[in-house]
Amino acid sequence: MASKLESTKLTRLTIVAGGSYSEREAWITTELQKLCAAAEYQKYGVLLEGLPTGSMSLQASSHIKLERIAPGCFCCIGQIAMRVTLNRLLRQGLSHLFIAMNDAEHLPALNTSLSSPTYARILQRKNEIIL
Asked: Residue 72 gets which letter from DSSP?
């Protein structure tokens, strides 16, 4: 039986790690502006670890599905919040997903999770950005 997350097209994935919350959000905002200008009617997803301080440059829209989860390493907090939120985003039929995490040292653990058969069938690794 097929997983509810499986789809016929792969979702491109970019992971952004390190730097401050505002730096990660600003980098993703710039990339989304480029993507939205180049392709109409695509859906993009953003999963941000942490809560913003000050103004938020990223805003959800009909083309951008945005989720923020409380600070705490994705791999160290049992991954429940990340998995639930990630699965919810992936059910949206995204063409590209950005995951932003605080600490680049935890990239190997996140990559291990995202390499599981459930996610490997639906995610196309694009790149990792370390700020």
From this structure: S
In the chain, the largest separation of any two C-alpha atoms, in whole Å, equals 46
Structure tokens at 58: 């990223």
User: Computed over its alpha carbons, how large is the radius of gyration of the chain?
Assistant: 14
31 φ, ψ to 5°? -65, -40
First to last CA, the chain: 40
Query: Cα separation of 48 and 45, whole Å?
Result: 10
Q: Could you tell me the sign of the dihedral formed by the alpha carbons of 76, 81, 86, 91, in that order?
A: positive
Separation in Å, CA 1 to CA 4, 6, 83, 91, 107: 9, 10, 20, 17, 31
Tell me the two tokens of residue 24. 């990660």
Q: Which two tokens stand for residue 52?
A: 């913003």
> Which tens digits make up the pLDDT trace of 39-90?
777 999 999 988 777 677 788 998 999 998 877 666 665 577 788 889 999 9
Q: Residue 108, by phi and psi: left (phi above 0), alpha (psi -120 to 50) or beta? A: alpha
Strands across the sheet containing 123-130 = 64-69, 44-49, 96-101, 11-17, 123-130
